[in-house]
Structures are given as structure tokens and as C-alpha cells.
């Protein structure tokens, strides 16, 4: 999360759900600290297939590209009504001379790199239940990092978004959410999800078969 600086609070941009903040391959002319709402990042290959690569919450900065890449590597799409600041690239570079801002930007880039690496490991080696448990635990940790209740997770993303992000089918995501609820790990009401047993979710993340010890599959 960036420190509060007057130079970092210029123009505001409001987005409706589904609206693009920027598109992949557009030139980078600004970065966008997210104030309210949520954003998903979408990569589209030259062959036309799409992969959701991450979610951003208030306090994250959309448009930060590693190694000062001149073009956006992904598209940024609003998950819900959202608001962000628009910080021109020249302003952002000047602000990097502030040690606190520079350290915060490096921390954001480092955290993003770690999450991308975790996603690759998750999709490449984990079972479906482990992938979903990982995402829910990650979202809870992100809420706590922002000073809110980590047990209450508002899922701005749809189940289709979750499926794309985790490399699963929509049917698998829906079945697993029902399964997690039936064994007392979570409760779900619309997009409001409550983590009831974080230790149990952590156990499933570590070993997917642990969920089979908690009761029968839902009918």
C-alpha cells in the first residue's frame, strides 16, 4: 500500500463493473492506485485464449509493470463499481525519489511476483480443492492486511473468474464451494463468504485429501 502523498492523489477515475481501466499492449502512461472496489487482470494470448492472472483490492496499484515495460502486460477490468487515482507516469517516477514511496512500490512489485509464482505452482501441482483453499486463504490475508475482518470475504469475482484464475471448470468451483460449506469450512450467501474454520482450510491447502475426512460429499 502506498503512503499518502498529495502528488499521488490527482485525477480520479470511476469504473463500472466490466469496464476496462486499460487494455493489454496499450502504452503505459499512468499507474492507478485503487481506492475502492476491485479489479481483475486478464492476459490474452496471440492465439486468443484468455487467462485471469490476478485480483486487485483497495491499496493495490494497477499498471505497475516490471522492468519499466513500455506496454501493459495484461488488461485491467473492474469487478464492480470501482474508483482509482490516475497518476501520470512522469509523476510516479518523480515520486519514486521519496524513499517511502520507492520502498512501497518495490514491496508491491515483490508481492505481486510472489503471488504469480504461487499461482504457477498451484495450477501446476495442486489438486482442485487445494487451489480453492489457497485462493480463499489469500483473500482473507489480503483483507487482514488492509485492517478488515479476514473471516468475512466479499467475493467481487464471479465463480467464472475463480475458475479462470485457478485453471478449473465452473462446475468444479461450484461443487467445491458447496463441499467446503457442507463440512463447515465456510458459509456462502450470494458473494458474501465467511471463513468458519481457517485451520481446516489450511489443512486442505496442505493436503487435499484432508477434506475427505470431514464427512460425505454433498448430494
Automatic annotation (TrEMBL):
- State the organism's lineage: Bacteria, Pseudomonadati, Pseudomonadota, Betaproteobacteria, Burkholderiales
Any one cellular-component term (Gene Ontology): cytosol
Q: Supply the Gene3D superfamilies for this chain.
A: Jelly Rolls (2.60.120.10), Winged helix-like DNA-binding domain superfamily/Winged helix DNA-binding domain (1.10.10.10)
Please name the InterPro entries in this protein's record. Answer: cNMP-bd_dom, cNMP-bd_dom_sf, Env_Response_Regulators, HTH_CRP, RmlC-like_jellyroll, Tscrpt_reg_HTH_Crp-type_CS, WH-like_DNA-bd_sf, WH_DNA-bd_sf
Source organism of this protein record: Cupriavidus metallidurans (strain ATCC 43123 / DSM 2839 / NBRC 102507 / CH34)
Stretches assigned to the HTH crp-type domain? 126-199
Q: Which domain of life is it from?
A: Bacteria
PANTHER family in UniProt: CRP FAMILY TRANSCRIPTIONAL REGULATORY PROTEIN, FUMARATE AND NITRATE REDUCTION REGULATORY PROTEIN
Quote the protein name from its UniProt record: Transcriptional regulator, Crp/Fnr family
Is DNA-binding given among the entry's keywords? yes
Transmembrane annotation, as ranges:
none
| Keyword vocabulary terms for this entry | DNA-binding, Plasmid, Transcription, Transcription regulation
Q: Which Pfam families match?
A: cNMP_binding (PF00027), HTH_Crp_2 (PF13545)
Q: Name one GO molecular function term.
A: DNA-binding transcription factor activity
The signal peptide annotation in the UniProt record is none
Amino acid at each position: 500500500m502506498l503512503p499518502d502523498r498529495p502528488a499521488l492523489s490527482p485525477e480520479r477515475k470511476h469504473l463500472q463493473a466490466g469496464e476496462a481501466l486499460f487494455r493489454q499492449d496499450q502504452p503505459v502512461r499512468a499507474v492507478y492506485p485503487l481506492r475502492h472496489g476491485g479489479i481483475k487482470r486478464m492476459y490474452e494470448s496471440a492465439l486468443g485464449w484468455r487467462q485471469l492472472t490476478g485480483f486487485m483490492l483497495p491499496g493495490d496499484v494497477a499498471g505497475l509493470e516490471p522492468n519499466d515495460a513500455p506496454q501493459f502486460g495484461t488488461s485491467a477490468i473492474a469487478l464492480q463499481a470501482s474508483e482509482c487515482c490516475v497518476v501520470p507516469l512522469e509523476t510516479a517516477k518523480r515520486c519514486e525519489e521519496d524513499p517511502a514511496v520507492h520502498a512501497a512500490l518495490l514491496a508491491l512489485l515483490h508481492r505481486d511476483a510472489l503471488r504469480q509464482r504461487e499461482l504457477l505452482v498451484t495450477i501446476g501441482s495442486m489438486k482442485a480443492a487445494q487451489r480453492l483453499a489457497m485462493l480463499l486463504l489469500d483473500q482473507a490475508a489480503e483483507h487482514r492486511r488492509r485492517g478488515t475482518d479476514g473471516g468475512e470475504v466479499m467475493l467481487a469475482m464471479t465463480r467464472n473468474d475463480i475458475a479462470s484464475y485457478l485453471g478449473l471448470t465452473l462446475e468444479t468451483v461450484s461443487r467445491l464451494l458447496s463441499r467446503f460449506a457442507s463440512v463447515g469450512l465456510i458459509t456462502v450467501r450470494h458473494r458474501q463468504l465467511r471463513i468458519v474454520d481457517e485451520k481446516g482450510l489450511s489443512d486442505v491447502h496442505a493436503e487435499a485429501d484432508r477434506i475427505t475426512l470431514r464427512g460425505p460429499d454433498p448430494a
